[in-house]
Amino acid sequence: MFKVKNADMETKRHFINENKERYSISALCQTLGISRGTYYYEPQVCTFDEKVRYHVENEFKKSKGIYGARKLKVKLKEQKLIVSRQKIRRIMKELGLVSKYTQAIYKVESQSCNEAAIENLLNRQFKTKNLLEVVVSDLTRVKVGTKSAYICFIVDLYNREIISFTCSFKKDAKMVAETLEKVRYNLQDIQIFHTDRGTEFANYRISELLQKHQIKRSLSKKGCPFDNAVAEATFKALKKEGVEGEKFRNLKDLHDKIYEFTYWWNYERIHASLDYRTPFEVRNQRLAQANT
């Protein structure tokens, strides 16, 4: 009896069932130190649908409200739950879960143009074979207090990794040059630097930096944002997933938020263009292949 008293609940229930013909259930429960309610309690088994609903809601919240049915299907598969996108959409509708991208609107801001006679070497070939084969860059505007601030990203096309960023109140070539200089990898490994024709990309300091590291220059066609679609898409994601609804008091607040976003983007967020892997996973897999 002493051993049973210190056993787990299932063992106690089994002991009571084996002896309830000789002793009262109340006496057995009292002896084993449990209430009658505990003895009679039968835990509810979570059904498959309940598990699916829980994980759909949980993964949606973890994604900061951006994952739709396709990416949620991938995340559920990681939990050993095989569910169709149609069912996930139905559950999302029942739970009132709407991806931030559902009503996305693409807007093109007019800007002055860099008329330099530089070819579009990228030519919308957004899938590359090696890390740092082509990096792309662009700038976007964000409100900080009552002022307009700007963010500059540099993205590696191979794994969509944000490899550098800066924030500034001045949208100029100095900002772009500083972003290049802050790239976390060896600049000599970069083969092509592609941007649109914004005047902030036309500067002697930038050209000198690219020449020093033997990086080829590539520019989009005039008035064609789709030639730099990956950079445009990255900023669209930033606004939807990182800064929408946020209020920044100063440049440090903005910098801290962008740092947080780039960590999420590079190490946690799965990307459809990467077969639902993170940039970090793709980079590590490529390096592992190179070492074999």
From TrEMBL:
Coiled-coil zones: none
SUPFAM superfamilies: Ribonuclease H-like (SSF53098)
Residue ranges of domain Integrase catalytic in the record: 125-287
Gene Ontology process terms (BP): DNA integration
Annotated Gene3D superfamilies: Ribonuclease H-like superfamily/Ribonuclease H
Pfam families xref list: HTH_21 (PF13276), rve (PF00665), rve_2 (PF13333)
InterPro entries tied to this protein: HTH-like_dom, Integrase_cat-core, RNaseH-like_sf, RNaseH_sf, Transpos_IS3, Transposase_IS3/IS150/IS904
Gene Ontology molecular functions: nucleic acid binding
Main function: Involved in the transposition of the insertion sequence.
Alphabetized NCBIfam families for the sequence: transpos_IS3
Name of this protein: Integrase catalytic domain-containing protein
